[in-house]
Amino acid sequence: MFDFLKRKKAEPQANLSNPDEWLLDALLRGTSSSGVKVTPVTALGISTVYACVNVISKTLASLPLCIYEQTEDGKVKAYDHPLYNLLTLQPNSTMTISEVVGTLVANLTLRGNSYALLSRDGLGNVRQIMPVEPSDMQLLVDPNTNQIDYRIDGKKIQRSRVLHFKGMSSSGALGFDTTTIAKDVIGLAIALQDDVASFFKNGAKMGSILLSDKTMKAEQVAKIREAFDNRHKGSGNGFKTAVLTDGLRPFTERFSYADSQLSEQRKIATQEIARVFGVPLSKLQIESATPRANVEESNRDFVTGTLRPIVVAFEQVLNIGLVPEGSRSRFSIGFNMDALLRGNIEARYNAYRIGRESGFLSVNEIRALEGMNAIGPEGDSFLQPLNYTTLGQAPADAEQLEGESID
After folding, report:
1. Is 171 domain-assigned?
2. What domain count does the chain have?
3. pLDDT number for residue 118
4. 227 and 348, same structural domain?
5. 188, part of any domain
6. Which residue did the predictor score with more confidence, 249 or 252?
7. Are residues 222 and 353 both part of a single domain?
8. Tens digits of per-residue pLDDT, 46-61?
9. 323 shares a domain with 182
10. What is the per-residue pLDDT across 207-246, written as a single tens digit (0 to 9) for each?
11. pLDDT of 395 strictly over 70
């Protein structure tokens, strides 16, 4: 009789804070200010959007990913860990780790959310990591507990089986869709591209035009056209003197693509899209947009301002989702961002020199970073600068040198 007093547990449901994909399409991914509907697929049709997503995803996919173990001798690769092969080579039966990371980063960059499903064995160890199409994943929030449930085709997926990578967010549950937030900028680029394509598709460009105030019969027009073409058509007959009779006079129609100012508008749209994704123009093969002296600085900003936040977010999600809680103090997953220096051998060797001379890198450690064999026990020694000591304390050899000079 007191059943009516019991609070019925509400079913997890989608709401405006965590809408389903179809609701996003209906409400947000509508028509942009330029009158063009922007979706992740149509956005990739713009070369600048594709280039931004491509350079970010491929750069991070090329970074070595590994699980490390904290030992008494320091942080070393955990070769015997069950996750080692998954994170360094083959996370599932059909994809390499480079392909999986590239897919996840591309979805995160373009859609603001990226998902992967985990397959576990009977002991709870992860055996496969499989990316999921973001549009197939539904996020449902339980109003009683604020717990997030994940569903695919209406079927609930255990949270322990889902890796959810999020971009910028207001609630923390769902990242902002990039194509939705920047739909006006991308929509303008699509409209300009369509306008240019229509310009060349529908534009009629005539050759030489002969005008006459007289009314001419069809036979006369045909004979004049044939005679004019025979005498002046082709590169070998160009610039010959033409004698026009019967009141004929030449007319030249001049119109250029630059007259429509579309070229300048497309350049501005390219800059705006690059700003949205945080990619310098030099990374988009637009060399003239960045002075050569500033390219190195812009590349550094790209690594620290664009790539590093994604790397940190990925590492945190991977460590929480793949490493058991009781093992996190011993094992950790991370990217090796030093690999970004591979293309600059001078900068890499200068870094090794500083590490060697400062006393925190040995010859064998440097050779290991370069993928070379050790040279033996003598390569494990460290250098110590003689002129370094504790502040306010004289170097150990100073007194000996002074005594030798007095004698």
Report:
1. yes
2. 3
3. 96
4. no
5. yes
6. 249
7. no
8. 999 999 999 999 999 9
9. yes
10. 677 777 777 888 888 888 888 777 777 766 666 777 777 7
11. no
Residue with tokens 């491509």: 54
What is the residue-averaged pLDDT of the chain?
81
Q: To the nearest 10°, the Cα dihedral for 311, 316, 322, 323? A: 120
Same domain membership, residue 65 and residue 25: yes
Both tokens assigned to 75: 């942080």
In degrees rounded to 5, what are phi and psi of residue 121?
-90, -175
For residue 112, being part of any structural domain is answered with yes
Residue 150 lies in a domain: yes
Residues 116 and 214 reside in one and the same domain: no
- 72, 215: one domain: no
Q: What is the pLDDT of residue 161?
A: 93
Q: Are residues 60 and 144 in the same domain?
A: yes
Residues 151 and 54 in one domain: yes
Please state the pTM of the whole predicted model: 0.74
Mean pLDDT value across residues 304-319: 95
Q: Could you list the residue range(s) of the whole structural domain that residue 151 is in?
A: 9-192+264-327
